[in-house]
Specification:
By secondary structure, this protein is of the alpha/beta class. It is built from 6 helices and 6 strands, in the order H-E-H-H-E-E-E-E-E-H-H-H. Strand 4 and strand 5 form a beta hairpin.
């Protein structure tokens, strides 16, 4: 049993390292298994006052591709439901993150999007860094949520000259002027999922 726990821990650690070091394209080589799915909101979403922003950011990807639609559910299921949480972090540079997971036994495992398709993502939004960066308005929160759902759909950070006009540009603790997917983001989503 101890060896299994160590093996799972090493798998998770190596996945985190791989996830963070091999992302350089505007789309990940792999993607979630379904483009039409629902998101479940933890109670922290409403207790921090993020429900409207999460709704808007989630819905910003709908209607771009006939193969992508992110709904909302009150029931968390294991196969294709994204989970959304709001909390705090000790990393002053991180506003949010989307972590992809594969269903596995005895525990679900992180799926580096450069190596594996995934079943669902856990989206975490960090209220303390969002507030510290003066991004605590509904539009700016929507921008962060939209960005994280873009990762959950298989989009990487936008690189090169397209970064200035993309919701998927790397975020920082500064005012953002892009609140939803732009022309470039929509084209990347269609290249990933189809029209």
């Amino acid at each position: 049993m101890k060896r299994k726990k160590i093996a799972v821990a090493l798998t998770v650690l190596s996945s985190v390292v791989l996830f963070s070091s091999f992302v350089s394209a505007d789309v990940f080589p792999k993607k979630r298994l379904e483009g039409k799915y629902s998101a479940w909101y933890d109670s922290s979403v409403s207790s921090y006052g993020y429900t409207g922003s999460v709704d808007a950011g989630r819905q910003s990807w709908n209607g771009i591709s006939s193969k992508v639609n992110i709904g909302k559910t009150t029931v968390k299921t294991g196969n294709s439901t994204d989970e959304v949480y709001v909390g705090t972090t000790t990393d002053a540079e991180t506003l949010g993150q989307a972590m992809p997971y594969m269903i596995s036994w005895p525990a679900n495992i992180i799926a580096p999007p450069n190596l594996f398709n995934w079943d669902y993502s856990v989206i975490s939004l960090y209220h303390n860094t969002i507030s510290a960066g003066k991004m605590n308005t509904n539009d700016l929160r929507k921008s962060i949520v939209s960005h994280e759902f873009g990762h959950a759909l298989g989009l990487a950070h936008t690189t090169g000259s397209n970064a200035s006009k993309s919701i998927m540009k790397p975020k920082s603790n500064s005012q953002e002027t892009i609140f939803e997917p732009q022309t470039y983001d929509k084209a990347e989503l269609k290249s990933k999922w189809g029209n």
